[in-house]
Structure formats: C-alpha cells, structure tokens
C-alpha cells in the first residue's frame, strides 16, 4: 500500500514539472482554476471520507447477517444513489459551469478573456472527473471492507500517468492549448474507477444498480 502511494506522489512530481516546462502561465493558471471543483471532490471523497462513512455500516450489516444479504443490499442501495445523484450533479455542472466558476473565481480573473474561456472549456471537460472519483471512492470502500488495500492505493497513480501521457500529446490533436491536460484528468478518473471496478468484479463484490424505481426500505 505504501509503495502505491509513493509511486503516485513521484508521478505527481513529474507531472508538475512537465506542466511547468511545456505550458505557459495562462494555460497552467486556467487548468489550476478549472481543477478546483474536481479536486475538491477528490479530497472530500477520494481520500477516504466516503470509505470512512460507508465501511462501518457495511461491516455492521455483514457481521449481523452471515448470509451477507443485508450487506449486499446496503452496498446496492448506496451504489444506486451515487450513480443517480452524481450523474445528475455532473450533468448540471457541465451545463452551469460558467455561473459556478463566476462564484468561485475573482472578477479580475474573469476579465482575462483568453484565460477565462480556457478555464470554462477545461472545466466542462474535467467536471466528469467528479463522477468517476466518487465511484472510485465507493469501490475503494468496498475493497477495503473485503480486505483489499493494495489496489486502491495504486489506483491514484493512474491519474498522474494519464495526465503525463496527455501532456506530451501533440497540441494540434485538441481544440485548444491545454485541452490535453483536461482530457488527461477525465481519462485518469475513468482509469482509477475502472481498475477498482475490475478488482471488485474479480472478487465477486461488485454491487448492482437497483434501477430508477428503487426506493430505500424503512
């Protein structure tokens, strides 16, 4: 687990060096501003908060029911709520990214037309990361509850790997300067969640979506 965390931090250092060397200040400032909301979700959910709140309930239900059915029902219910809730939140974020950033960023920042437009474009691309990092956090909680810690610790390194790869892609492949950074974040989030999805499936612990008609039982 420690090696996975160390690998992620080393890759993060290389990522920051590459960003500073290959992009001008306008692009890096826009990326930093646009990444504020996805990074907030990563800190709130991806760094353990969701796991800390979910694991005790899951383990309590698992201990109280040897068949594991109650624990599975809890996991399925939380999974369904997260899929629907985060799906809606992500769509709203993409649609209303401009007023959202106007609330978060200073008036002086908005006056810089080039940087502002780049921030909005990056923000729309990266907002999907909030969905995937939430799924990653939930999958991490389930894997931890099943006694697996190495894979969740290694998964964050994929974000930095993805960003490094997209950083070195030819700029003409993208709509504008710096867009590759935003796509690197989105793809990195998909890879993180995807790795843990496969890990859960291989252990038979993958939850299932209960459908739009599901309501919690009282």
Structural notes for this entry:
By secondary structure, the protein is mostly helical. The protein has one domain. 78% of the residues lie in helices and 0% in strands. The protein is built from 12 helices and no strands. The chain has helices at 2-22, 25-34, 36-46, 49-64, 69-95, 97-104, 107-111, 113-126, 128-145, 150-154, 157-167, 179-202. Helix 4 packs parallel to helix 9 and helix 8 (113-126) runs parallel beside helix 12. The N and C termini lie far apart (38 Å).
Present the secondary structure layout.
Layout: H1 2-22, H2 25-34, H3 36-46, H4 49-64, H5 69-95, H6 97-104, H7 107-111, H8 113-126, H9 128-145, H10 150-154, H11 157-167, H12 179-202
Subcellular location: Cell membrane
Transmembrane segments: 78-105, 125-142, 149-169, 181-200
Family: Belongs to the MurJ/MviN family.
What are the key terms here?
218 residues; mainly alpha; 12 helices; 78% helix; 0% strand; globular
Head-to-tail CA distance between termini: 38 Å
Task: Please indicate the count of domains.
Answer: 1
The gyration radius over C-alpha positions equals: 19 Å
Please provide the ordered H/E string of secondary-structure elements.
Answer: HHHHHHHHHHHH
Low-pLDDT segments: none
Apparent shape = globular
Mean pLDDT: 84
- Extended strand count: 0
Helical content (DSSP H or I, runs of 4+)? over 70%
Number of alpha- plus pi-helical segments: 12
Instruction: Specify the structural class.
Output: mainly alpha
Main sheet summary:
none
Function: Involved in peptidoglycan biosynthesis. Transports lipid-linked peptidoglycan precursors from the inner to the outer leaflet of the cytoplasmic membrane.
Transmembrane segments: 78-105, 125-142, 149-169, 181-200
Keywords: Cell membrane, Cell shape, Membrane, Peptidoglycan synthesis, Transmembrane, Transmembrane helix
GO molecular function, one term: lipid-linked peptidoglycan transporter activity
